[in-house]
Design goal:
Structural class of chain A: alpha+beta
Strand order of the largest sheet of chain A: 1-3-2-4-5
Number of helices of chain A: 8
Largest interface: A-B, 31 and 31 residues
Shape of chain A: globular
Distance between the termini of chain A: 14 Å
CATH class of the largest domain in chain A: Mainly Alpha
Helix content of chain A: 40-55%
CATH topology of the largest domain in chain A: Glutathione S-transferase Yfyf (Class Pi), Chain A, domain 2
Oligomer: homodimer
Largest sheet of chain A: 5 strands, mixed
Order of helices and strands of chain A: EEHEHEEHHHHHH
Number of strands of chain A: 5
Strand content of chain A: 5-15%
Protein backbone atom coordinates (compact mmCIF):
# COMPACT_ATOMS: atom_id res chain seq x y z
CA UNK A 1 0.00 0.00 0.00
CA UNK A 2 1.45 3.34 -1.00
CA UNK A 3 0.05 6.08 1.18
CA UNK A 4 -0.25 9.42 -0.53
CA UNK A 5 -0.73 12.64 1.29
CA UNK A 6 -1.07 15.74 -0.80
CA UNK A 7 0.73 18.32 1.21
CA UNK A 8 1.11 22.05 0.83
CA UNK A 9 -2.61 22.43 1.29
CA UNK A 10 -1.79 22.07 4.96
CA UNK A 11 -0.09 25.46 4.92
CA UNK A 12 -2.57 28.18 5.63
CA UNK A 13 -3.40 31.45 7.27
CA UNK A 14 -2.22 30.20 10.65
CA UNK A 15 1.43 30.16 9.59
CA UNK A 16 3.65 31.94 12.10
CA UNK A 17 7.07 31.19 10.73
CA UNK A 18 9.18 34.10 9.56
CA UNK A 19 11.26 32.97 6.63
CA UNK A 20 14.74 34.09 5.70
CA UNK A 21 15.65 36.22 2.74
CA UNK A 22 14.65 33.89 -0.03
CA UNK A 23 16.49 32.85 -3.17
CA UNK A 24 15.63 34.65 -6.42
CA UNK A 25 13.33 31.86 -7.54
CA UNK A 26 11.94 31.07 -4.12
CA UNK A 27 8.23 30.63 -3.72
CA UNK A 28 6.60 34.05 -3.50
CA UNK A 29 4.83 33.46 -0.20
CA UNK A 30 3.75 30.84 2.25
CA UNK A 31 1.00 28.59 1.00
CA UNK A 32 1.90 28.96 -2.65
CA UNK A 33 3.52 25.96 -4.21
CA UNK A 34 6.35 25.98 -6.70
CA UNK A 35 5.26 25.42 -10.28
CA UNK A 36 7.30 22.23 -10.53
CA UNK A 37 5.51 19.22 -9.19
CA UNK A 38 7.54 17.29 -6.67
CA UNK A 39 7.18 13.70 -5.55
CA UNK A 40 9.15 12.38 -2.61
CA UNK A 41 9.31 8.60 -2.25
CA UNK A 42 10.44 6.95 0.97
CA UNK A 43 9.41 4.32 3.46
CA UNK A 44 6.41 4.96 5.71
CA UNK A 45 8.68 6.11 8.53
CA UNK A 46 10.38 9.36 9.54
CA UNK A 47 13.95 8.15 8.83
CA UNK A 48 16.09 10.56 6.85
CA UNK A 49 13.22 11.86 4.71
CA UNK A 50 11.17 13.56 7.42
CA UNK A 51 13.49 16.57 7.48
CA UNK A 52 12.75 17.11 3.78
CA UNK A 53 9.01 16.53 4.19
CA UNK A 54 8.76 18.86 7.20
CA UNK A 55 10.80 21.60 5.48
CA UNK A 56 8.44 21.42 2.49
CA UNK A 57 5.43 21.67 4.80
CA UNK A 58 6.82 24.66 6.70
CA UNK A 59 7.86 26.32 3.47
CA UNK A 60 4.45 25.73 1.90
CA UNK A 61 5.75 23.61 -0.97
CA UNK A 62 3.18 21.22 -2.38
CA UNK A 63 4.48 17.71 -2.90
CA UNK A 64 3.31 14.15 -3.27
CA UNK A 65 4.27 12.23 -0.14
CA UNK A 66 4.75 8.79 -1.65
CA UNK A 67 5.40 5.98 0.82
CA UNK A 68 6.45 2.43 -0.01
CA UNK A 69 6.06 -0.51 2.34
CA UNK A 70 9.02 -2.69 3.27
CA UNK A 71 7.18 -5.49 1.43
CA UNK A 72 7.17 -3.44 -1.79
CA UNK A 73 10.80 -2.36 -1.48
CA UNK A 74 12.60 -5.41 -2.99
CA UNK A 75 10.71 -4.93 -6.26
CA UNK A 76 11.31 -1.16 -6.31
CA UNK A 77 14.97 -1.16 -5.22
CA UNK A 78 16.48 -2.19 -8.59
CA UNK A 79 14.64 0.69 -10.29
CA UNK A 80 16.22 3.37 -8.06
CA UNK A 81 19.47 5.14 -9.02
CA UNK A 82 21.64 3.71 -6.23
CA UNK A 83 19.28 1.19 -4.64
CA UNK A 84 18.37 3.78 -2.05
CA UNK A 85 15.53 5.94 -0.82
CA UNK A 86 14.52 8.74 -0.50
CA UNK A 87 14.00 9.57 -4.13
CA UNK A 88 12.81 12.97 -5.30
CA UNK A 89 11.17 13.36 -8.70
CA UNK A 90 10.51 16.70 -10.36
CA UNK A 91 10.22 17.85 -13.94
CA UNK A 92 10.84 14.33 -15.20
CA UNK A 93 14.16 14.05 -13.36
CA UNK A 94 15.11 11.94 -10.38
CA UNK A 95 17.29 13.02 -7.47
CA UNK A 96 18.80 11.19 -4.49
CA UNK A 97 20.46 12.15 -1.18
CA UNK A 98 18.27 13.58 1.56
CA UNK A 99 20.85 16.21 2.62
CA UNK A 100 20.97 17.57 -0.92
CA UNK A 101 17.16 17.65 -1.05
CA UNK A 102 17.04 19.55 2.24
CA UNK A 103 19.37 22.22 0.85
CA UNK A 104 17.20 22.52 -2.27
CA UNK A 105 14.03 22.94 -0.24
CA UNK A 106 15.78 25.40 2.05
CA UNK A 107 16.86 27.54 -0.88
CA UNK A 108 13.43 27.42 -2.56
CA UNK A 109 11.52 28.29 0.61
CA UNK A 110 13.87 30.64 2.45
CA UNK A 111 14.56 28.11 5.20
CA UNK A 112 18.18 28.37 4.05
CA UNK A 113 19.71 31.83 3.76
CA UNK A 114 21.03 32.97 0.41
CA UNK A 115 23.82 34.83 2.20
CA UNK A 116 26.78 32.41 2.11
CA UNK A 117 28.01 33.41 5.58
CA UNK A 118 24.58 33.05 7.18
CA UNK A 119 24.14 29.72 5.38
CA UNK A 120 27.51 28.64 6.81
CA UNK A 121 26.05 28.89 10.33
CA UNK A 122 23.09 26.76 9.24
CA UNK A 123 25.31 24.17 7.57
CA UNK A 124 27.59 24.11 10.62
CA UNK A 125 24.65 23.04 12.82
CA UNK A 126 23.58 20.47 10.23
CA UNK A 127 27.15 19.11 10.26
CA UNK A 128 27.08 18.83 14.05
CA UNK A 129 23.77 16.97 13.85
CA UNK A 130 25.26 14.65 11.21
CA UNK A 131 28.24 13.99 13.51
CA UNK A 132 25.82 12.93 16.23
CA UNK A 133 23.85 10.73 13.83
CA UNK A 134 27.09 9.03 12.78
CA UNK A 135 27.53 8.02 16.42
CA UNK A 136 24.05 6.47 16.48
CA UNK A 137 24.12 4.79 13.06
CA UNK A 138 26.34 1.75 13.81
CA UNK A 139 23.94 0.61 16.55
CA UNK A 140 21.03 0.82 14.11
CA UNK A 141 22.81 -1.12 11.37
CA UNK A 142 23.29 -4.10 13.70
CA UNK A 143 19.63 -4.93 13.08
CA UNK A 144 20.46 -5.58 9.40
CA UNK A 145 23.33 -8.00 10.15
CA UNK A 146 21.98 -11.34 8.96
CA UNK A 147 24.87 -13.25 10.56
CA UNK A 148 23.56 -12.47 14.05
CA UNK A 149 20.66 -13.99 15.99
CA UNK A 150 18.14 -11.72 17.71
CA UNK A 151 19.82 -12.40 21.04
CA UNK A 152 23.28 -11.65 19.61
CA UNK A 153 22.01 -8.41 18.12
CA UNK A 154 20.59 -7.34 21.46
CA UNK A 155 23.86 -8.14 23.23
CA UNK A 156 25.85 -6.22 20.64
CA UNK A 157 23.57 -3.18 20.62
CA UNK A 158 23.26 -2.73 24.39
CA UNK A 159 26.76 -1.36 25.11
CA UNK A 160 26.63 0.81 21.98
CA UNK A 161 23.39 2.40 23.17
CA UNK A 162 24.85 2.88 26.62
CA UNK A 163 27.66 4.93 25.10
CA UNK A 164 25.16 6.96 23.07
CA UNK A 165 22.96 7.64 26.10
CA UNK A 166 25.76 8.37 28.54
CA UNK A 167 28.38 10.03 26.34
CA UNK A 168 27.19 11.10 22.90
CA UNK A 169 23.83 12.63 23.84
CA UNK A 170 25.36 14.66 26.70
CA UNK A 171 28.28 15.80 24.50
CA UNK A 172 26.26 16.86 21.46
CA UNK A 173 22.98 17.91 23.01
CA UNK A 174 24.72 20.21 25.50
CA UNK A 175 26.09 22.06 22.48
CA UNK A 176 22.64 22.37 20.90
CA UNK A 177 21.25 23.43 24.30
CA UNK A 178 23.84 26.22 24.46
CA UNK A 179 22.84 27.44 20.99
CA UNK A 180 19.21 27.58 22.12
CA UNK A 181 20.24 29.57 25.19
CA UNK A 182 21.77 32.16 22.86
CA UNK A 183 19.03 32.30 20.22
CA UNK A 184 15.39 31.41 19.79
CA UNK A 185 16.30 28.91 17.07
CA UNK A 186 19.62 27.16 16.53
CA UNK A 187 21.22 29.84 14.39
CA UNK A 188 19.20 32.96 15.17
CA UNK A 189 15.68 34.35 15.42
CA UNK A 190 14.34 32.44 12.39
CA UNK A 191 13.57 28.81 11.63
CA UNK A 192 16.05 27.26 9.19
CA UNK A 193 16.63 23.81 7.73
CA UNK A 194 19.07 23.24 10.61
CA UNK A 195 16.17 23.50 13.06
CA UNK A 196 14.10 21.16 10.94
CA UNK A 197 16.87 18.57 10.78
CA UNK A 198 17.60 18.73 14.52
CA UNK A 199 13.86 18.45 15.25
CA UNK A 200 13.82 15.09 13.48
CA UNK A 201 16.84 13.98 15.53
CA UNK A 202 15.32 14.91 18.91
CA UNK A 203 12.00 13.32 17.92
CA UNK A 204 13.91 10.13 17.05
CA UNK A 205 15.97 10.07 20.23
CA UNK A 206 13.02 10.78 22.54
CA UNK A 207 10.60 8.45 20.76
CA UNK A 208 11.43 5.39 22.87
CA UNK A 209 11.94 3.43 19.63
CA UNK A 210 15.64 2.87 20.24
CA UNK A 211 16.39 0.23 22.87
CA UNK A 212 18.63 1.74 25.51
CA UNK A 213 17.78 5.35 24.73
CA UNK A 214 15.13 6.41 27.24
CA UNK A 215 12.24 8.61 26.07
CA UNK A 216 13.28 10.90 28.92
CA UNK A 217 16.68 11.58 27.35
CA UNK A 218 15.80 15.24 26.71
CA UNK A 219 15.03 15.97 30.37
CA UNK A 220 18.49 17.41 31.11
CA UNK A 221 18.02 19.85 28.21
CA UNK A 222 15.09 22.19 28.93
CA UNK A 223 15.82 24.46 25.97
CA UNK A 224 15.81 21.51 23.56
CA UNK A 225 12.53 20.26 25.06
CA UNK A 226 10.95 23.69 24.61
CA UNK A 227 12.39 23.91 21.08
CA UNK A 228 10.85 20.55 20.18
CA UNK A 229 7.44 21.64 21.47
CA UNK A 230 7.62 24.96 19.65
CA UNK A 231 8.64 23.36 16.35
CA UNK A 232 5.92 20.73 16.65
CA UNK A 233 3.37 23.48 17.28
CA UNK A 234 4.07 25.23 13.97
CA UNK A 235 0.66 24.74 12.30
CA UNK A 236 2.03 23.00 9.19
CA UNK A 237 4.20 20.71 11.31
CA UNK A 238 1.37 19.93 13.72
CA UNK A 239 -0.97 19.11 10.81
CA UNK A 240 1.66 16.91 9.14
CA UNK A 241 2.54 15.01 12.31
CA UNK A 242 -1.17 14.45 13.00
CA UNK A 243 -1.64 13.13 9.45
CA UNK A 244 1.12 10.53 9.89
CA UNK A 245 -0.27 9.05 13.09
CA UNK A 246 -1.03 5.37 12.57
CA UNK A 247 -4.75 4.78 12.48
CA UNK B 1 55.78 23.44 14.03
CA UNK B 2 52.90 25.23 12.37
CA UNK B 3 53.47 25.43 8.65
CA UNK B 4 51.92 28.43 6.98
CA UNK B 5 51.38 28.72 3.29
CA UNK B 6 49.95 31.96 2.01
CA UNK B 7 47.72 30.81 -0.78
CA UNK B 8 45.76 32.66 -3.41
CA UNK B 9 49.00 34.02 -4.82
CA UNK B 10 49.25 30.63 -6.49
CA UNK B 11 46.32 31.51 -8.73
CA UNK B 12 47.50 33.21 -11.82
CA UNK B 13 47.28 33.76 -15.52
CA UNK B 14 47.51 30.06 -16.23
CA UNK B 15 44.09 29.36 -14.74
CA UNK B 16 41.97 27.28 -17.06
CA UNK B 17 38.97 26.60 -14.87
CA UNK B 18 35.63 27.94 -15.99
CA UNK B 19 33.59 28.87 -12.95
CA UNK B 20 29.85 28.66 -12.53
CA UNK B 21 27.49 31.57 -12.26
CA UNK B 22 28.75 33.10 -9.04
CA UNK B 23 26.87 34.32 -5.99
CA UNK B 24 26.17 38.05 -5.72
CA UNK B 25 29.12 38.61 -3.41
CA UNK B 26 31.43 36.16 -5.09
CA UNK B 27 34.95 37.17 -5.84
CA UNK B 28 35.01 39.25 -9.01
CA UNK B 29 37.51 37.10 -10.86
CA UNK B 30 40.11 34.43 -10.49
CA UNK B 31 43.20 35.51 -8.63
CA UNK B 32 41.45 38.20 -6.61
CA UNK B 33 40.94 37.35 -2.98
CA UNK B 34 37.89 38.16 -0.90
CA UNK B 35 38.26 41.17 1.40
CA UNK B 36 37.72 39.00 4.48
CA UNK B 37 40.87 37.32 5.67
CA UNK B 38 40.44 33.61 6.19
CA UNK B 39 42.51 31.24 8.28
CA UNK B 40 42.00 27.50 8.04
CA UNK B 41 43.51 25.41 10.82
CA UNK B 42 43.92 21.65 10.50
CA UNK B 43 46.49 18.92 10.88
CA UNK B 44 49.37 18.72 8.40
CA UNK B 45 47.54 16.09 6.35
CA UNK B 46 44.91 16.09 3.62
CA UNK B 47 42.13 14.59 5.77
CA UNK B 48 38.78 16.36 5.54
CA UNK B 49 40.30 19.84 5.11
CA UNK B 50 41.97 19.35 1.74
CA UNK B 51 38.69 19.71 -0.12
CA UNK B 52 38.28 23.17 1.43
CA UNK B 53 41.91 24.15 0.81
CA UNK B 54 41.82 22.97 -2.81
CA UNK B 55 38.50 24.73 -3.50
CA UNK B 56 39.97 27.98 -2.16
CA UNK B 57 43.04 27.54 -4.35
CA UNK B 58 41.00 26.84 -7.48
CA UNK B 59 38.66 29.73 -6.68
CA UNK B 60 41.55 32.12 -6.10
CA UNK B 61 40.65 32.84 -2.46
CA UNK B 62 43.60 33.90 -0.35
CA UNK B 63 43.80 32.12 3.00
CA UNK B 64 46.24 31.29 5.74
CA UNK B 65 46.90 27.55 5.62
CA UNK B 66 47.58 26.93 9.32
CA UNK B 67 48.74 23.43 10.22
CA UNK B 68 49.12 22.01 13.72
CA UNK B 69 51.22 18.99 14.56
CA UNK B 70 49.74 16.01 16.38
CA UNK B 71 52.13 16.93 19.24
CA UNK B 72 50.56 20.39 19.52
CA UNK B 73 46.98 19.14 19.29
CA UNK B 74 46.32 18.14 22.95
CA UNK B 75 47.06 21.70 24.07
CA UNK B 76 44.94 23.24 21.29
CA UNK B 77 41.98 20.84 21.46
CA UNK B 78 40.32 22.39 24.56
CA UNK B 79 40.35 25.82 22.89
CA UNK B 80 38.34 24.64 19.84
CA UNK B 81 34.52 24.83 19.74
CA UNK B 82 33.84 21.08 19.73
CA UNK B 83 37.33 19.68 20.25
CA UNK B 84 37.62 19.23 16.51
CA UNK B 85 39.48 20.46 13.47
CA UNK B 86 39.27 21.91 10.87
CA UNK B 87 38.55 25.35 12.22
CA UNK B 88 37.93 28.34 9.97
CA UNK B 89 38.44 31.86 11.25
CA UNK B 90 37.25 34.98 9.47
CA UNK B 91 36.23 38.44 10.59
CA UNK B 92 36.85 37.56 14.23
CA UNK B 93 34.49 34.58 14.10
CA UNK B 94 35.20 30.87 14.23
CA UNK B 95 33.47 28.19 12.19
CA UNK B 96 33.57 24.39 12.23
CA UNK B 97 32.46 21.53 9.93
CA UNK B 98 34.37 20.97 6.73
CA UNK B 99 31.27 20.27 4.63
CA UNK B 100 29.79 23.62 5.65
CA UNK B 101 33.08 25.35 4.80
CA UNK B 102 33.13 23.71 1.38
CA UNK B 103 29.65 25.05 0.63
CA UNK B 104 30.74 28.53 1.71
CA UNK B 105 33.81 28.47 -0.50
CA UNK B 106 31.76 27.07 -3.36
CA UNK B 107 29.25 29.91 -3.10
CA UNK B 108 31.93 32.59 -2.79
CA UNK B 109 33.96 31.32 -5.75
CA UNK B 110 31.33 29.98 -8.12
CA UNK B 111 32.40 26.36 -7.59
CA UNK B 112 28.84 25.87 -6.32
CA UNK B 113 25.98 27.06 -8.50
CA UNK B 114 23.59 29.66 -7.16
CA UNK B 115 20.76 27.94 -9.01
CA UNK B 116 19.15 25.63 -6.42
CA UNK B 117 18.43 22.88 -8.95
CA UNK B 118 21.96 22.91 -10.37
CA UNK B 119 23.33 22.97 -6.81
CA UNK B 120 21.15 19.93 -6.03
CA UNK B 121 23.11 17.90 -8.60
CA UNK B 122 26.36 19.02 -6.97
CA UNK B 123 25.12 18.20 -3.47
CA UNK B 124 23.82 14.83 -4.67
CA UNK B 125 27.34 13.85 -5.79
CA UNK B 126 28.78 15.14 -2.51
CA UNK B 127 26.23 12.99 -0.66
CA UNK B 128 27.25 9.92 -2.67
CA UNK B 129 30.90 10.61 -1.83
CA UNK B 130 29.96 10.97 1.84
CA UNK B 131 28.14 7.63 1.69
CA UNK B 132 31.33 6.03 0.38
CA UNK B 133 33.45 7.70 3.06
CA UNK B 134 31.06 6.39 5.73
CA UNK B 135 31.91 2.88 4.50
CA UNK B 136 35.64 3.58 4.89
CA UNK B 137 35.52 5.45 8.22
CA UNK B 138 35.01 2.53 10.66
CA UNK B 139 38.20 0.86 9.41
CA UNK B 140 40.13 4.09 10.01
CA UNK B 141 38.79 4.59 13.52
CA UNK B 142 40.13 1.18 14.59
CA UNK B 143 43.57 2.83 14.78
CA UNK B 144 42.31 5.04 17.63
CA UNK B 145 40.97 2.13 19.72
CA UNK B 146 43.29 2.07 22.72
CA UNK B 147 41.91 -1.26 23.93
CA UNK B 148 43.51 -3.10 20.99
CA UNK B 149 47.13 -4.08 20.38
CA UNK B 150 48.78 -3.32 17.07
CA UNK B 151 48.33 -6.94 16.02
CA UNK B 152 44.66 -6.94 17.05
CA UNK B 153 44.06 -3.73 15.09
CA UNK B 154 45.63 -5.27 12.01
CA UNK B 155 43.48 -8.38 12.34
CA UNK B 156 40.33 -6.30 12.79
CA UNK B 157 41.05 -3.91 9.92
CA UNK B 158 41.98 -6.53 7.30
CA UNK B 159 38.47 -7.93 6.60
CA UNK B 160 36.98 -4.42 6.70
CA UNK B 161 39.43 -3.25 4.05
CA UNK B 162 38.73 -6.34 1.98
CA UNK B 163 35.05 -5.38 1.90
CA UNK B 164 35.94 -1.82 0.94
CA UNK B 165 38.28 -2.94 -1.85
CA UNK B 166 36.04 -5.69 -3.23
CA UNK B 167 32.54 -4.30 -2.66
CA UNK B 168 32.39 -0.61 -1.75
CA UNK B 169 34.90 0.76 -4.24
CA UNK B 170 33.34 -1.18 -7.15
CA UNK B 171 29.80 -0.15 -6.10
CA UNK B 172 30.45 3.55 -5.61
CA UNK B 173 33.26 4.21 -8.07
CA UNK B 174 31.33 2.59 -10.93
CA UNK B 175 28.66 5.24 -10.30
CA UNK B 176 31.21 8.06 -10.41
CA UNK B 177 32.77 6.47 -13.52
CA UNK B 178 29.37 6.55 -15.21
CA UNK B 179 28.93 10.23 -14.38
CA UNK B 180 32.32 10.94 -15.96
CA UNK B 181 31.27 9.02 -19.07
CA UNK B 182 28.32 11.39 -19.40
CA UNK B 183 30.08 14.66 -18.59
CA UNK B 184 33.58 16.12 -18.47
CA UNK B 185 33.19 16.71 -14.75
CA UNK B 186 30.89 14.95 -12.29
CA UNK B 187 27.87 17.19 -12.78
CA UNK B 188 28.52 18.85 -16.12
CA UNK B 189 31.09 20.77 -18.16
CA UNK B 190 32.39 22.83 -15.20
CA UNK B 191 34.41 22.08 -12.09
CA UNK B 192 32.35 22.24 -8.91
CA UNK B 193 32.95 21.54 -5.22
CA UNK B 194 31.68 18.00 -5.91
CA UNK B 195 34.67 17.41 -8.20
CA UNK B 196 37.00 18.87 -5.59
CA UNK B 197 35.62 16.63 -2.86
CA UNK B 198 35.74 13.48 -4.99
CA UNK B 199 39.31 14.36 -6.04
CA UNK B 200 40.36 14.20 -2.37
CA UNK B 201 38.63 10.82 -2.04
CA UNK B 202 40.33 9.26 -5.06
CA UNK B 203 43.69 10.68 -3.99
CA UNK B 204 43.16 9.08 -0.56
CA UNK B 205 42.07 5.71 -1.91
CA UNK B 206 44.89 5.48 -4.47
CA UNK B 207 47.59 6.81 -2.15
CA UNK B 208 48.61 3.40 -0.82
CA UNK B 209 48.27 4.81 2.73
CA UNK B 210 45.40 2.51 3.64
CA UNK B 211 46.44 -1.08 4.33
CA UNK B 212 44.41 -3.40 2.13
CA UNK B 213 43.46 -0.74 -0.42
CA UNK B 214 45.92 -1.11 -3.31
CA UNK B 215 47.28 2.03 -5.00
CA UNK B 216 46.06 0.42 -8.22
CA UNK B 217 42.42 0.53 -7.07
CA UNK B 218 41.53 3.10 -9.75
CA UNK B 219 42.72 0.89 -12.61
CA UNK B 220 39.22 -0.47 -13.39
CA UNK B 221 37.96 3.11 -13.72
CA UNK B 222 39.73 4.85 -16.63
CA UNK B 223 37.47 7.92 -16.53
CA UNK B 224 38.18 8.44 -12.84
CA UNK B 225 41.92 8.08 -13.45
CA UNK B 226 41.77 10.68 -16.22
CA UNK B 227 39.62 12.94 -14.02
CA UNK B 228 42.18 12.74 -11.21
CA UNK B 229 45.02 13.64 -13.57
CA UNK B 230 43.06 16.54 -15.07
CA UNK B 231 42.08 17.94 -11.68
CA UNK B 232 45.65 17.64 -10.40
CA UNK B 233 46.88 19.48 -13.49
CA UNK B 234 44.80 22.59 -12.78
CA UNK B 235 47.63 25.08 -12.19
CA UNK B 236 46.47 26.15 -8.71
CA UNK B 237 45.98 22.52 -7.68
CA UNK B 238 49.34 21.46 -9.09
CA UNK B 239 51.08 24.34 -7.29
CA UNK B 240 49.33 23.55 -4.01
CA UNK B 241 50.06 19.80 -4.16
CA UNK B 242 53.71 20.56 -4.95
CA UNK B 243 53.88 22.93 -1.96
CA UNK B 244 52.63 20.23 0.44
CA UNK B 245 55.20 17.62 -0.57
CA UNK B 246 57.30 16.70 2.45
CA UNK B 247 60.82 18.08 2.14
Amino acid sequence: MAARILAGALAGAGATVVLNDAYPDAIPSLGLSRPKDIKLTYFDIAGVADKVRIAMHIGGMAFEDDRVSFAQWPSIKPTTPNGQLPLMESGGKRYTQSSAMLQLVGKLTGLQSRDPWAALLVDEVIGLDEDFRKKVAPSVYVAYDKSLSARQKKAKVAPMRKTIAEEDIPFYFSRFEKKLEENEYLTGPKVTIADVQFLTTVRWMSSGILDGIPATCLDPFPKIKAFKEKMEAIPEVAAYLESTKKK
